[in-house]
Structures are given as C-alpha cells and as structure tokens.
C-alpha cells in the first residue's frame, strides 16, 4: 500500500522553507499531496489558481529527483478532512521555532482525535530556512524589499505582479 502524505498550507507565496519541507517529505512518502488552503476569511495575495501553477512548476524538479508523485489540490475546510479525501496516512507540518511547536502539537493532537488513522509528522525547518514566513515575505515585498533570498525566482515574478494588481 502506498504511503500518502498531505502537506497543507497557504503557499501565499511558496517559500524556500516550503520547498525544503516538500523535498524532505518526498523522502518519506510514495505520494505527496500539497493542500493549498483557500479560506474565505483570509485575503490571499496570490489567487489559488496561480499558487497551484507556481507550486507545480517549482516542485516538478523535486518530483523528478525523488520519483515521488506530487499532486496539488485546494481545500477550504479542515486539513484533516482534506487529508482523508486524499487518502493520506500522514499530515506533514514544518516547525520553525518553539511557538510553531506549541501550536502545531496542539493541532496535531486535535487532528489525531478527529482522525486517529492519520498521523501528524513534524519536520524541523532547516537552519537556512527557519526564519522564512510567507507573511514576512509579503510584508518585505509590499515595502519594496528584495525577497529573492526567501522565495524562488518564479514566485518573485508572481508576487510582483500581484502587488501591482492591488
């Protein structure tokens, strides 16, 4: 039976931190589903369709290198429900620091109560990416700063276009 992992996030925009977790997750599973959250209460900078296209583009080399099938889908409810729909046995979460840990452990326990058959796996951010947060990337970009250290070049162009449109 194939081991399927589900990695949820906003990916608004996709960062080198996300790509680090995706690449490391690909070593743990046979198939990886990236769940792009499209919550109606949150205003995304980048439209969901563009986030999916961008994720597909920047994760293709990871899929080719690892041989893992990476698929991308949107979800607007509970991540655990989306993981179940994807037939995932693992929900993958990245941890940057202690505040992420406290929140994510609590969320993992709640998800475990809702779906005991789906395990939450935490991957610590690599030292080179642990400071990267999509929200900070957007803030830097809005203020005219250089975000090329934090996101792939394909994402830089998408962020700049999205900011011009707002």
Explain what you see.
There is one protein chain. With 166 residues, the protein is of the alpha/beta class. The protein has a single domain, classed as Rossmann fold (3-Layer(aba) Sandwich). It is 45% helix and 19% strand. It has helices spanning 16-25, 48-66, 79-85, 98-114, 134-142, 153-165; strands spanning 4-9, 31-37, 69-75, 90-95, 119-124. The protein has a 5-stranded parallel β-sheet with strand order 3-2-1-4-5, sandwiched between helices. The longest helix is centred in the middle third of the chain and has 19 residues, at 48-66. The termini are far apart. The mean pLDDT is 95.
Q: Quaternary arrangement of the chains shown? A: single chain
**CATH superfamily name?**
HUPs
Annotated CATH architecture: 3-Layer(aba) Sandwich
Reported for the largest beta sheet, the result is: 5 strands, parallel
Q: Order of strands across the widest beta sheet?
A: 3-2-1-4-5
- Return the structural class: alpha/beta
Beta content comes to: 15-25%
Overall spatial form: globular
Instruction: Tell me the number of helical segments per DSSP (H or I, 4 or more residues long).
Output: 6
Segments where pLDDT lies below 50 for 5+ residues? none
N- and C-termini, Cα separation: 46 Å
**CATH topology-level name:** Rossmann fold
Q: Count all strands and give the number.
A: 5
């Amino acid at each position: 039976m194939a081991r399927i992992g589900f990695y949820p996030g906003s990916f608004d925009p996709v960062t080198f931190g996300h790509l680090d977790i995706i690449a490391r997750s690909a070593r743990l599973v046979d198939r990886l589903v990236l769940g792009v959250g499209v919550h109606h209460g949150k205003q995304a900078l980048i439209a969901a369709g563009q986030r999916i296209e961008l994720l597909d583009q920047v994760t293709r080399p990871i899929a080719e290198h690892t041989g893992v099938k990476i698929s991308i889908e949107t979800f607007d409810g509970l991540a655990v429900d989306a993981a179940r729909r994807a037939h995932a046995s693992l929900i993958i979460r990245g941890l940057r620091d202690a505040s992420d840990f406290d929140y994510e452990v609590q969320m993992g326990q709640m998800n475990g109560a809702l779906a005991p058959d789906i395990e939450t796996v935490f991957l610590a951010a690599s030292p080179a990416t642990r400071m990267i947060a999509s929200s900070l990337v957007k803030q830097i970009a809005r203020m005219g700063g250089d975000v090329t250290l934090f996101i792939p070049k394909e994402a830089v162009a998408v962020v700049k276009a999205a900011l011009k449109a707002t």
